[in-house]
TrEMBL record:
This is Formamidase. InterPro entries: FmdA_AmdA, FormamaseFmdA. Pfam families: FmdA_AmdA (PF03069). NCBIfam families: FormamaseFmdA.
Length: 417
């Protein structure tokens, strides 16, 4: 096992750990640990809400999830010799939940969760159709997940970190804040908001204290979106065996990781759409000097996916085009087309006895594949959702006998916004 350089105690909150991570982006957040090029090491990661979501049959915790706390990131991890303009090479050697006997009752220790976020607290990809909070808890058995809230399915997870990134430079941070404030100003009262500005509330900034903490907390960017440094990309295929090339913007690169998912469908469409968990991550790092200019990777990482993802070979595919639910034609709106494909899949699954919310949660958690299938045929983009049929313990393809009716169980816990 690689050396554990970032341990976490599951009985303690994120700010109370022996080594304190962070939940904001800023170049002045000090490195928590330092490694050398070629080193392999293990990092523990907290679940993104630091234990505020519970293994129960209520969605009140999703409704009231404290967005100012996210994400609980392990790092920054400085790499000796890394300089701005380099590419940081990160190999994902292994990852997974912590063993139950070592960890207690927190997410990632035998279980995880998927949540539909309420419109009043972040919303989701289908927020207008699903404005309230819902939750599904998943139990882990080896590499497979099942849920008492969504019966009749079992699937192998594509375990991955939702968030990996290097630290931004001061100039890059200023660019983020400027463009996101400009976007917010176009509709400052929108729900859900157009972006999340810097907010000192609940900021965790490693070892910073006093005036330095106050200054950084006022400027530091929130971790919710992906940006040029990587960040919350939520790419389900970024799993074990993957190699990532990150742009380096500050000395040491200052790599941070977190937001582990046991599984996820393409798009993480419920916002809290993967199966969220804490766990461990084994990494190896190296440096490609001057790699940003050499390969033109001046912003946004590139990666080589691993080859250990589940092998599903039969799919039922749903399509959608860029026409709104009330019949308005949009021009090549691929985002809308993917929403319509998801809604078609949800409507189909309700014919078997699932509630719309159960079907939506399933699409967020299971390893569905989403594709922009046609983006040039005016006026309609075409997007598709590929649903693996083998995850169900009953037939879901159309037949003369009609859909099998299942017992929907206790359903997905609900909390109205």
């Amino acid at each position: 096992m690689p050396e554990l350089i970032f341990p976490l105690d599951s009985t303690k909150r994120f700010p109370d750990q022996q080594i304190v991570g962070h939940n904001r982006w800023h170049p002045d957040i000090p490195a928590a640990v330092t490694v050398k090029p070629g080193d392999s090491f293990r990092v523990h990661c907290r679940e993104w809400f630091d234990g505020d979501i519970h293994n129960d049959d209520s969605a009140e915790d999703i409704l009231n999830a404290p967005m100012t706390k996210v994400h609980a990131l392990s790092g920054p991890i400085a790499v000796e010799g890394a300089r701005p303009g380099d590419l940081l090479i990160v190999d994902i050697l292994d990852l997974g939940p912590l063993p139950q006997e070592d960890s207690g009752p927190l997410a990632g220790q035998g279980w995880g969760y998927t949540g539909i976020f309420a419109k009043s607290n972040g919303g989701s990809f289908l927020v207008e159709q699903f404005p309230d909070a819902y939750k599904a808890v998943w139990d882990f058995a080896g590499e497979k997940a099942t849920s008492r809230h969504i019966p009749g399915v079992e699937f192998t997870g594509i375990t991955h970190p939702g968030l990996m990134a290097t630290a931004p430079s001061a100039d890059l941070l200023a660019k983020w804040n400027s463009r996101e404030r400009a976007l917010i100003a176009t509709d400052p009262d929108r729900l859900p908001p157009l972006a999340l500005p810097p907010d000192p509330a609940d900021a965790v900034l490693g070892t910073l204290a006093g005036d330095a903490f106050e200054q950084v907390a006022a400027e530091a960017a929130r971790t919710a979106p992906p940006r040029e440094n990587g960040g919350n990309m939520d790419i389900k295929n970024l799993t074990r065996g993957s190699r990532v090339f990150f742009p380096v913007f500050v000395a040491g690169a200052n790599l941070s990781v977190g937001d582990l998912h046991f599984s996820q469908g393409d798009g993480e469409i419920t916002f809290c759409g993967g199966i969220e968990m804490g766990g461990f991550l084994d990494l190896r790092v190296d440096i490609l000097p001057g790699g940003m200019d050499t390969y033109g990777v001046n912003e946004h990482p590139i990666f080589m996916p691993g080859n250990t993802q589940p092998q599903y070979s039969e799919w039922l595919t749903f399509s959608g085009t860029s026409v709104t639910l009330d019949g308005e034609q949009r021009y090549l709106d691929s985002q809308l087309a993917y929403q319509r494909a998801c809604l078609h899949a949800i409507a189909y699954l309700t014919k078997f006895g699932y509630s719309p919310e159960q079907a939506y949660l399933l699409l967020g958690a299971a390893p569905i594949e989403g594709r922009f299938s046609g983006v040039v045929d005016i006026p309609n983009s075409c997007a598709t959702v590929y649903l693996p049929t083998a995850i169900f313990d009953f037939p879901i393809t159309p037949s003369a006998r009609g859909p099998v009716q299942i017992d929907p169980g206790i359903g997905a816990p609900h909390a109205a916004a």
